[in-house]
Amino acid sequence: MADIKSLEHPTLKVPYEILNKKFRITQKNIDREISHIQAASSEIENSLSQQNVKARDISSLLGGMAEKLQVLKRKAEEGISEELSSSNVCKKRLDHLKEHAEAVTNPDVSLGVLNQWKRKRLDRMVVEYFLRNGYYNAAITLAERSGIKDLTNIDIFMTSRDVEKSLANHETLKCLAWCHDNKSKLRKLKSNMEFNIRLQEFIELVRVDKRMDAIKHARKYFGNFEDEHLPQIQRVMALLAFPVDTQLSPYKSLFNESRWDTLIEEFRQENYRLFQLASQSVFAVALQAGLSALKTPYPFITLNLKHYIHFEPILK
């Protein structure tokens, strides 16, 4: 059971984090709609307390109240549906881990059942390895063939892929939307992702010689980060005084296009932290542990994953 405790933590933690996030979103939506209903109710009470109130005015207010109640009902149903979906994923993963416990503790269970479970776990590890390395089509195909899609985190990595692609194209909207969706959790993690994105937006405005727009951008966004990042803000603001092809350090590095690659890697690591995923895949960790345990004079081997999955080519 030691390997289960050490390797399967993300298996349960990730769907739990997703469920927790959906619960908080649903709660916020319901609270917001309830506040709208309370405001409408107060408006009706105020109208009724006035003299010479007209029936059509009250009818209109009641109609608005009914619409708000319908919106509340719809959002509550949508939220509950999403929470149930996430709960079912948690249950499926728990059942999957329980299969291993029963196979180990129950003497009536054949060795073949345990080996089948281990094969399924290996498939999950390889799927995660593919996802982390950008082989999305291969990961999806393997997950579907093995019937383990609900036991993997494909949805998380597909969302991550979209954000990484947008950053690779020097676009920031999707990453900022991701930051907004996970704002409270990122704040707890003391993430600098949004700040670094805002810095890069400023740099890009200076790069295309829109310096007044860059100043407006700084006034709008940098004020939120002054307490923690004032030295960085001061340094990047100095770019207004330099040409794009400056050779003076550190301003030359701020104009370097490789900063986008740094942002992609930072986003990837922040996404792992958000869902409490390790920086290394479970497959890589298990492989390294296995190689370390082998008594062999050769410290490294070449692993051809194409022979394992029996199909090619592997497409990103």
From TrEMBL:
Gene Ontology BP term (one): erythrocyte maturation
Pfam families found in the cross-reference section: CTLH
One term under GO cellular component: cytoplasm
Record-linked SMART domains: CRA (SM00757), CTLH (SM00668), LisH (SM00667)
Coiled-coil positions: none
MF-aspect GO terms: ubiquitin-protein transferase activity
Location, primary (coarse class): nucleus
Localization of this protein: Nucleus matrix
InterPro entries: CRA_dom, CTLH/CRA, CTLH_C, Fyv10_fam, LisH
Domain of life assignment: Eukaryota
Domain CTLH per the UniProt entry, residue ranges: 156-213
Keywords: Erythrocyte maturation
Keyword Ribonucleoprotein belongs to the record: no
Protein name as it appears in the record: E3 ubiquitin-protein transferase MAEA
UniProt source species: Henosepilachna vigintioctopunctata
